[in-house]
Structure formats: C-alpha cells, structure tokens
What we know:
With 272 residues, this protein is an alpha/beta fold. It has a single domain (15-271), classed as Protein of unknown function UPF0759 (TIM Barrel), CATH 3.20.20. 32% of the residues lie in helices and 22% in strands. The chain contains nine helices and ten strands. The protein has an eight-stranded parallel beta barrel. Residues 1-16 and 19-26 have low confidence and may be disordered.
Amino acid sequence: MTFARTCASLGWGGDSSVCEVGRRSRRMKFHIGTSGWVYNHWRGLFYPQALAQAKWLEFYSQHFDTVELNNSFYRLPSERAFEAWHDRTPPGFVYTVKVSRLITHLKKLRNVETALETFLSRARILGEKLGPLLYQLPPNMPRNEALLQAFLELLPCDLRHVVEFRNESWFDQGTFALLRKHGISFCIYDMPGFVTPIAATADFAYIRFHGSAGMYESCYSDSEIEKWANRIEELGRGLTSIYVYFNNDSQAFAVRNAKALARRLNAAIRKG
C-alpha cells in the first residue's frame, strides 16, 4: 500500500487534537497540530474550496488546539499580526513560535541579546496563548557547550524554550544535562532516514515530524503512527505536556497524520 493510499484511509474524523491523561494530582496533555496553516495546496484537501484564506485560521482552530508558527523564522511578524492571531482563535489555543533565523542561523547564538529581546517581546503579545519557543540550530553548527550555556542563560525562565539540533554532534549526554540544568526541552524529530534520540530534558516534550520517506512530502503509515504513539505514551510518563507538530505539508498529509495520532492517543486514554 502506498503512503498516499494509507493516508486516504485515515479519514478526517472529529477527534480533538488535545488529549488529557490523569496523573495523580495533575494532567498531562498532548497538543497535536501542524507546522503552519497557510498552504495553498490545502484548499480542497482540508480547507473548503470556497473558504476565503482570511478565514483559514478560524477553520484550522476548529480541528486543532495548537499550531507551530514558522513564518516567524524568516521575518519578525508585526505587533498587529500577533494581536490578530491571539484574537482569532478560541480560548485554550496554543501557538508555539519558531524563533528568527537571525538569532539561530545568522548570528548562531552569538551577540543576540538585543535581537532576542526584540523577538520575545513581540511573541509575548500572544499572552496566555504563547506556548514553547523553538530555536532550530543549523546543520553546519557543531556542538559547542560553552556557547550553548551562554545562550541558555539569556532565556527568560517564565517562558518555555525548545532547542532543535540539526548537527548530530549535539546528541550527547553532556548536551542533555545542560538542557536539563536550565529546564529547556530537547526537540525530538523524525525525517527520512533519521530519528533523533527520544529524550525529555524538561517537564514537557516537543516532537516534529518532517516526513518518513520524503522530506515534507511523505505520509506516515498506520504502523508508523502506531509506533510513534507508543513512544509518545512512554515518553509522557511524568511530564506535564507534549507538543507534536507535523511538517509534511504536501497533499495535506500533515493534517491527516496529526488527526490520526490524536485519534490513536485518545483511544488509548478512553481504554484507561
């Protein structure tokens, strides 16, 4: 069976993308969504054909309780944009925000105090809807624990932070220990031919799916969703929340896979 046919068999369903698991005196939540929501090729696949793009966020938020803002990586959105995103979504909706490439790719974490302050002050406009901030480091940036330590010390403790390492030299116990020391989450991700270590370094976890067979363009099969659901359930023991985003936007696979994972996790919760 092809990936596309597998996804077509999943259906859309009506399952919520937020799942709650009771853990003694607290609840652990799974927030499941996609990386971005404005993709023209989703019209007719996810968004109704006649629905104006200006209404897509409202439609999206009827199906998911979270989204990963990724246009913020390329340029700093305006204050008005952040205000609109806050106001256009229902209570409880969560935005995770990908931090500017100026900080991570151009300056590579050096001399970023002003740029960081500017970016975070803008993101804070989201208020109670602001979730974790994602710092994706470039593939050509090898492990440098002193540099990472200095950068982590700049991050305000009242916000949640996630670091995504694209250079494998960072996948080391020393890196994980440094993240744990500062309460920073390690970004777990899956891409063709590669899966990071499955590790939690904060009281929450963060997972990105870029496609298993083709980068951004392949659909996860039923068996792959099941495998990841088992991993996520195990990872979630003792955590407060897990944020999951699908970035395989081709043919709206991200939407279908996010809904499939939510259904699988919700089914397990209902079984107790």
